[in-house]
Write a structure and sequence with these properties.
Chain B: Belongs to the ABC transporter superfamily. The complex is a heterodimer of chains A (about 270) and B (about 350). Chain A has about 270 residues and is mainly alpha-helical. Chain A has a domain at about 65-225 and about 250-270: MetI-like fold (Orthogonal Bundle), CATH 1.10.3720.10. Chain A has helices spanning about 5-30, 50-55, 55-90, 95-105, 110-125, 130-155, 160-170, 175-200, 205-210, 215-225, 230-255, 265-270. The chains are: A mainly alpha (about 270), B alpha+beta (about 350).
């Protein structure tokens, strides 16, 4: 077979990009299952490090808290962003770009600053102590903007005239939403939920200021650094990465099988078989 | 008492009146078309009747009830959309059952009614398909079925045939009219296609610039256009401009190279700028006789080419004033291309309008 330099170069570049992205993650994953975790080449397999992680009650509590923050912040931001997107697309009219800009502005605020300002504001005006609740709220602010962008790209393709059709045929606005709109746009909401879950699950900067003494996985890992890079951190990183990859794989499979088509595409309906 | 009444209905978008003081009264068994070019406000008018738009002014009455401020789902109307708008996540059966479920009918009755609609629209066997597994014509039938199945007070149709090819369209025209007659409910049909409007309607409302120019029987709209716009828009006509001159009880219109004579009209007098229309099929042709004097309502022309339309032929003629089209049935006496002919028409077949200042 003839070697085509352009294609070889392209493939090489792609391989380099993937290595750049994934090499550190793969290293940590190997190390967390290896007897010599500082330099696992060639790896000798063992589950000792994983065992140490799972017998550590601090990390168990932290995992629980992270999941709570993740689920609640994702649910809250997806709900609000869904409502905001419907408002933007259906009712904002000519001022839509202005509203959109204001909705996504939190994306450009440093997470540390968002955390600090939420802490100060909560303490000064709301009298909210640092706890899971205020961490969820602060994370939802940040996630809301991401969720909005994800949902907006999906809902933009939704044909709102389907809502007209449902209403003309006797469905109240509420019924229309649950019978027609939601079944057609849920993939966008679901995608936003997963992404915002991962974001707030992994968040350190915002949560750090608002959690008080409550540990989450990122904050426990951050705190553990004071005592050097312990093997539990390897195991922790691997576990978190596994969860994240699992969620992404779920989304990928749903897209591949066509269960999730991301939005209603009117042009497909018109084409004859 | 009319079944559907529009009373001074207007709709303003920004500074534009999309619908401007429309009054209409539609009877229970009528098939009415709203005919107009795109952007004339006919779809907005339909959506106001459906409740999808609220009029800025005026009232909408259906079956004696003022529904102006009722939301669409409480009006008991149904609609067939140009883009069909079938629910893509629902099967044909579920799409057809949707209006019935919203009426909270029993399961057995829903099945019965859906079966009835599947029968009259020849959709049996497609119940389990999804809309994207249907051809355009089948989707159209499902959309029509979904409109009929709930026995609405009125069925609103928004250019439902615009996405179908010509042959299918003509079949559906006959079918739609048949269902309307059988069900005895009013159909209000929006279209920009005069053939659809003429083939199905009892009455036609010609809409232009948000106003109804005329609302009359289809024969009146076609044979006795009330405005120059209708004469231009409905049917195919030849247009002449000229200046009117009074001649006893008749008007003589002197245009460029042509003299038109017709009966006097109120409102048109000596020296007025006028525009005259003669429908293509009213222009008759005979082979030119050498030496014959050119009289009123005749034009000496030459056949440039002949367009066969199947049952009739269109003769494209050139004359000193430009182009003229005459259409006539293909009765065997066909005229050859390139022939010198005399085109002529009856004085009664001239539609004459005063030329509004800069309007046409």
């Amino acid at each position: 077979m003839r070697i085509r330099p352009a294609k070889t170069l392209l493939l090489g570049t792609v391989a380099l990009c993937y290595l750049f992205l994934y090499l550190p993650i793969i290293h940590i994953a190997l190390a967390s299952f290896a007897r010599n975790y500082t330099f696992p080449y060639p790896p000798k397999w063992t589950l000792t490090i994983m065992g140490r992680l799972f017998s550590n009650s601090l990390y168990q509590a932290a995992l629980g808290n992270s999941i709570i923050i993740g689920l609640c912040a994702a649910a809250l931001s997806t709900l609000l962003a869904g409502l905001a997107t419907i408002g933007l697309l259906r009712h904002a009219g000519r001022r839509a770009p202005l509203y959109l800009a204001l909705f996504v502005a939190p994306l450009f605020v440093s997470e540390v600053l968002l955390g600090i300002s939420s802490l100060i504001f909560n303490g000064l005006f709301l009298g909210l102590p640092g706890n899971l609740g205020s961490a969820i709220l602060a994370n939802a602010v940040h996630c809301f903007s991401y969720a909005l962008l994800i949902i907006a790209t999906q809902l933009y393709r939704y044909d709102w005239r389907l809502d007209d059709a449902a209403m003309v045929f006797g469905a109240s606005p509420m019924r229309t939403f649950f019978e027609v709109t939601l079944p057609l746009v849920w993939p966008g909401l679901f995608g936003a939920f997963i992404v915002t879950f991962i974001m707030s699950f992994n968040n350190l900067e915002i949560s750090f200021y608002l959690l008080g003494a409550t540990p989450t996985l990122p904050s426990a890992a951050w705190g553990a650094l004071r005592y050097g890079v312990k093997p539990e951190l390897y195991a922790l990183a691997t576990c978190v990465n596994l969860v994240v990859f699992f969620l992404l794989a779920v989304m990928f499979v749903l897209m591949l099988t066509g269960t999730v088509t991301f939005g209603h595409r009117p042009e497909r309906e018109r084409s004859a078989v | 008492m009319a079944y559907i009444t529009l009373d001074g209905v207007s709709k303003q978008y920004g500074s534009v009146w999309a619908v401007d003081r429309v009054d209409m009264a539609i009877d229970k068994h009528e098939f009415v078309s709203l005919l107009g070019p795109s952007g004339s406000g006919k779809t907005t008018l339909l959506r106001i009747i459906a409740g999808l738009e609220t009029p800025t002014q005026g009232r909408v009455l259906i079956d004696g009830e003022d529904v102006t401020h009722l939301p669409p789902h409480r009006r008991g109307v149904a609609m067939v959309f140009q883009e069909f708008l079938l629910f893509p996540h629902r099967t044909v059966y579920e799409n057809l059952a949707f209006p019935l479920r919203m009426l909270k009918l029993q399961k057995g009755e829903i099945a019965e009614r859906v079966d009835w609609v599947l029968g009259i629209l020849a959709l049996r066997g497609l119940e389990k398909r999804y809309p994207n597994q249907l051809s355009g014509g089948q989707q159209q039938r499902v959309a029509l079925g979904r409109g009929l199945v709930g026995r609405p007070k009125v069925l609103l149709l928004d250019e439902p045939l615009a996405n179908l090819d010509r042959e299918l369209r003509q079949e559906m025209e006959v079918e739609i009219r048949r269902h309307q007659t059988a069900l005895g409910i009013p159909f209000i049909y929006v279209t920009h296609n005069q053939e659809e409007a003429l083939s199905m309607s009892d009455r036609i409302a010609v809409v232009r610039g948000g106003r109804v120019e005329d609302f009359a029987s289809r024969t009146d709209i076609y044979d006795r256009p009330k405005t120059a716009f209708i004469a231009q828009f409905v049917g195919r006509s030849n247009r002449f401009e000229g200046v009117a001159a009074q001649a006893s009880d008749r008007l003589a219109i002197r245009g460029e190279g042509v003299l038109i004579e017709t009966a006097a009209r109120p409102g048109i007098g000596e020296g007025d700028n006028v525009v005259a229309y003669v429908k293509n099929e009213k222009v008759r042709l005979k082979l030119a006789e050498p030496g014959a004097a050119a009289g009123a309502n005749t034009i000496a022309a030459r056949i440039r080419h002949v367009i066969l339309r199947g049952a009739y032929a269109e003769y494209v003629l050139s004359w000193s004033g430009g182009e003229l089209i005459a259409s006539r049935p293909r009765d065997g006496a066909e005229l050859p291309g390139g022939a010198e002919v005399t085109a002529y028409w009856d004085a009664a077949d001239v539609d004459l309008f005063a030329q509004a200042g800069g309007d046409q």
